[in-house]
Amino acid sequence: MVQPDVLLLDEITSALDPELTKSVLDLIRALAKDGYTMVIVTHHMSFAMSVADRILFLKNGRVLKDEKSIPFFADQSDPEIRSFILDIAKKDESIEVFKGVEQFQAYHMGLMKRLPEGSTIYVAGAVGDAWYGPMGDFYKPYEDLRIKKKIAWKMVTYDQSEIDRRLVKEHPELNQFRSMPRNIQNPANYNIFGDTVITQIFQDEPTIIQVKNQYIADAYMRFFEELWDAGK
After folding, report:
1. C-alpha to C-alpha distance for 149 and 74, rounded to whole angstroms
2. In terms of pTM, does the model score above 0.85?
3. CATH of domain 6-91
4. What is the pLDDT of residues 138-180, one digit of tens each?
5. Most buried among 51, 86, 101, 172, by the most CB within 10 A?
6. Is residue 124 within 8 Å of 180, Cβ to Cβ?
C-alpha cells in the first residue's frame, strides 16, 4: 500500500490553501525524482510543466492530445488547447521557490527529464563547485541523463571545479566554459533555459527561485551574452 506501482492523483491540491498546496506539490516533485509513476489530474500549469514527462489533454472524456511535456506547452498547434493553456497560465504563479536539498535535487532531476534533447542551459555564476554538493548521490544520474540527451552547459564562471575540468575533457561538445573577468561583480548563480530563469542560493540551505517570464529571460540572456563575450 505504501509503495504502489502507480499513484493516481485527482486534483490533489483542490480546496487547499497556498501553503498546503506548495507542500503537496513539493512532495510530488520529490516522488517524481525518486522514480514513482504518477497519473495526475491538474489545472496547475507550472506544476505540470515541472514534473510531467507526458501530457494527456482530455475533453468530454476524449483524449484530444497525447504528447511529451515540452512540445505540448511550447509548440501547441491546436487552437482550443493553446487557448486553454494561455487562459490557465494567466491565473498561474510565475514565481516559485524551492528550498532544501530534497527540493533542489527534485527540481534539477525533473528539469533534466523534461528538457528536449539537444537543449542548452546557460549558466552564469560565482559559486565554484557549490552546486554539485546538494545534488549528492543524484549528481551521477543527472550527469548520465544530460550526456545521453546531449544537453549542453554553456557557462561563465570565476573558477572551474575538478568536475568542470573533467566534463570539458570527456565531453567538450557539451561543456563550454569561459572565465568571467574578476572586475565583473556577479555574486549570484543563475541559469536560463527557454522562457525561464532560476537563481540559486547556497547559504544555509540550497534554494532555487524560478521565474517564468519571456521578457525577463531575454534580459538575462542579453547579460549572459555580454559576460560570455567578455570572458576567455
Report:
1. 18
2. no
3. 3.40.50.300
4. 999 999 999 999 999 999 888 788 899 999 999 999 999 988 7
5. 51
6. yes
